[in-house]
Amino acid sequence: MSYYQRHIFFCLNQRPNGEACCADRGAQRAFDHCKSRVKAEGLAGPGKVRVNKAGCLDRCAAGPVAVVYPEGVWYTYVDEHDIDEIVERHLKHGEVVERLLVPPHVGR
Amino acid sequence: MSYYQRHIFFCLNQRPNGEACCADRGAQRAFDHCKSRVKAEGLAGPGKVRVNKAGCLDRCAAGPVAVVYPEGVWYTYVDEHDIDEIVERHLKHGEVVERLLVPPHVGR
User: Per its UniProt record, what InterPro entries does this chain match (chains A, B) (predicted)?
Assistant: First the structure.
């Protein structure tokens, strides 16, 4: 098994030139919320879940985005309710949250 | 298949208090080198390879570290020669570079 059972990376990229970026769409707040929920649920740590900051994941057109490995499942989200659902269903129980999936071909 | 065939994340975490961190061990330079090699080899992009910055991956005792998903293979490295080997063998050909693996139980 991988060191973490599930490893979620949030794009927190901030573009300086006014272009659309995850940082302008609530990514830091979502990351903080996810990290805090995972910790509160006792899911954090080796063999369990890790919530990580990442630079640009290059799927900006779907932003804000996060990706869960090793599954390689990509999510977009709007608010903390969406993050709660990702934590509860995917990070805790391994179910994919279909309604939040990034469409397959959306890239930068 | 995942959006990226292989997605490597480099810990670039900088600790402000003098504690050991990947940033103090050449992580930025390794990241830059990896990104540039992957691009030069024509490996970069959807369906291929993505080289990403990450915050603390919490395996500091093995730092500097990087992780390749979806395989969940963790590496440490010393210099650009090591990065070249990860790019050529793992990111290009899917072979694990055994000599650079992080031992299974090394954490923070």
Answer: Thioredoxin-like_sf
